[in-house]
Write a structure and sequence with these properties.
Length: 332
């Protein structure tokens, strides 16, 4: 049986094979694939939020559905529908070029638009759910189309229904966002405000905010074209106030942020303090400039990277009593 390499389609750059590899350019391509090949099915967009820990015994659909279309608008907002295979950063740049606000803080996040609701991607005080309107998805078992609105998606911190109840059941063909004609900015995140001050920018434009965020991200995160990675590998753990205060007594310098009636701990701080930043083993490593980022340091196996991730998890749990869960989807 022929096997197909997924190495070009994951930003870790590890080699894993699948049973079939089909590029999807339209909804009709999905229907044709479902009629031609047997399940199971997997869907890949930009491949920037997956770790292929082994071969995939499945037909993999590469979502290549593109396009950005204005569907509706009024005096204050514009509703745009975007192909699930569209590059996320391209959408952000499109919104800025049309002076539409809402997505600028999410500049330079790698991956596709179709993956954004699954992860509920977020950065610098903003999540995609804040502008999300709806999405269109096709069932990988029945071929039926389903429309999800915001409340249907059960968005949470780096979470959605597509990581729980409906995990792996759909391919997202189109996503709609409601963008604002009024320039609403959020520069509460310390790194953004500091950089704007350094550049002596008091009233930033959308483009200036985007430029600052792109520069900050580029300074912290390795380019996956140069160093295989999937950005932040772990989620920041959420703990009770009591658990946080207990940790604070032991580690007064611990980094944390309020999160409703709980606290969000910095996973990067925990991993860094545990001594993992810059560590390398079996061709897998932790990026020297950011402890949240695992990198391909020469391995051809995603299993080596997953082993490193599990070692980090176990060590942080032993030292701090806190579990750091992967943000990245692990296959195989």
């Amino acid at each position: 049986m022929n096997k197909f390499s997924l190495q070009p389609f994951n930003t870790f750059g590890v080699d894993a094979q699948c049973s079939n590899l089909i590029k999807i350019y339209s909804e009709q391509d999905i229907y044709d694939t479902l009629l031609t090949y047997g399940d199971p099915y997997k869907v890949v967009g930009g491949g920037s939020n997956i770790l292929l820990a082994g071969d995939i015994e499945a037909t993999v659909m590469l979502n290549q559905i593109k396009g950005i279309q204005v569907i509706d608008e009024d005096d204050n907002h514009v509703l745009v529908t975007v192909g699930g295979g569209e590059n996320w950063h391209n959408l952000v740049m499109w919104s800025i070029s049309h002076n539409l606000s809402g997505l600028q803080n999410l500049s330079l996040i790698p991956g596709s638009v179709g993956a954004a609701p699954i992860q509920n991607i977020g950065a610098y005080g903003v999540e995609q759910s804040s502008c999300f309107h709806s999405l269109r998805a096709i069932s990988l078992t029945s071929g039926l189309t389903k429309l999800y609105y915001r409340e249907d998606c059960k968005f949470g911190y780096r979470d959605s229904i597509f990581k729980k109840l409906d995990a792996g059941k759909y391919i997202i063909t189109h996503v709609s966002y409601m963008l604002s004609k009024e320039v609403n900015i959020n520069v509460s995140y310390g790194a953004i405000r500091n950089e704007l001050n350094n550049r002596k920018i008091e009233t930033p434009t959308l483009k200036q905010i985007s430029n600052v965020i792109c520069d900050i991200r580029a300074s912290k995160l390795p380019d996956p074209i140069v160093v295989g990675n999937a950005g932040s590998f772990f989620k920041n753990p959420i703990v009770t106030i009591e658990a946080y205060e207990s940790l604070l007594q032991k580690y007064p310098e611990i980094v944390a942020f309020p999160f409703g009636d709980q606290m969000k701990l910095s996973a990067g701080w925990l991993i860094d303090r545990a001594g993992w930043k810059g560590h390398s083993q079996n061709g897998a490593g932790v990026y020297k400039n950011h402890a949240l980022v695992l990198i391909n340091d020469g391995t051809n196996s995603g299993g080596d990277i997953w082993q490193l991730a599990m070692d980090i998890q176990a060590d942080v749990l032993t030292k701090y009593g806190v579990e750091v869960a992967p943000e990245v989807n692990v296959w195989g």
